[in-house]
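Lest this sound abstract, we let one protein speak, letters for residues, whole numbers for local backbone shapes, and leave readers to judge:
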Amino acid sequence: MWTRATTRHLLCVSLIAAFSVAIIAQEGNSRERIADEVLEIETRLVEVPLAVTDKTGKPLSGLTAANFEVFEDGVRQEIASFSSESAPFEVALLLDTSGSTRSDLRLIVRAAEYFIRALRPGDRVAIVAFNQKVSGRRVEAYSEIVSDLSEDKDGLAKSLSQIGTSSGTPFYDGLLMVAKDIFGAPPAQRFRGRRALVALTDGVDSTSFWDFSKAESELARSGIVNYFVNIDTRERFEDNLLGDCNSATHFSDTQIRKYWDQFPKGSKMERVYDFCKIGDFVRLDISKRLYEIAGEEMLQIATRSGGRVFPASDIRDAANAFGEVASEIGSKYSLGYYSTNEKQDGSYRKIEVRLRDVAPGAEVRAREGYTAPKE
């Protein structure tokens, strides 16, 4: 039988329990807010990979944070983190297995495996390549992740053996996949400022859904350093470009539009978008310009990130270029700083890194800048 005392006791217990739940919920929400704030603060760390060479061009080892000064828009910044050349790297290896390199697939795989095995223990590699699928009556090329980040070199070599080829070159989509799917999440502490894209390609996009500006902005946002082994496939491509429309290698519609878009809209020249109605002279000019654009785009992405473009006359040269890339990755430093400019205005901030107390003739190559977050 319930008494008044029992009722009062239960009421007190209920109030205490409800109060406790409210406190726990409030503490939980506070912890979530604190965690969010910590994450937000951490992501504001500006990461700057660095390559330092002596006057002969060889990597300069043994430097410390005291050997560097970093400036943002001319204002000196305090270095908050520093990693020596011995720290591990994460690398996304993008392999162009499109039509222009299809006959060299076996050599591409061998060169890529050579690169992977030239990296150090602790370095992690992901592999992205091109493939194709049948959609109705069309064959569509697409980018795919062949292997997620791994330091298992035997496993990575096995993944390489499963790479196929594609009828088109979704190069920009591949770059975007690296920026968003491979390196979209914040890095573990040991990989901060130590992430890289290494692409083996001629850079001539033909079938991407996204355009160059989107790929470039996402790569810049990710803060990774970008390297390109630029294979010269132009002569081989042009061997099949001229003559009969039915047997010639066609440009994609996107490539033809890109060519004509370089001319002023008010120009009186006739713009022909049907490949079969384009004469041989214009076909050669389109090819020339597409390869020039590709070279300019790769150089722009690489330079702004502190990376490099390595020319390769053919796939056989790629192994040597890969060796140089692996050597540079193994000798890179990185630093990080929290900008004194706390404005979230989406502006571009210029980064300058200077060397201190090093031998004359030494040079540093670093990320040129970044775009601040927008409030």
The first helix runs from residue 4 to 43.
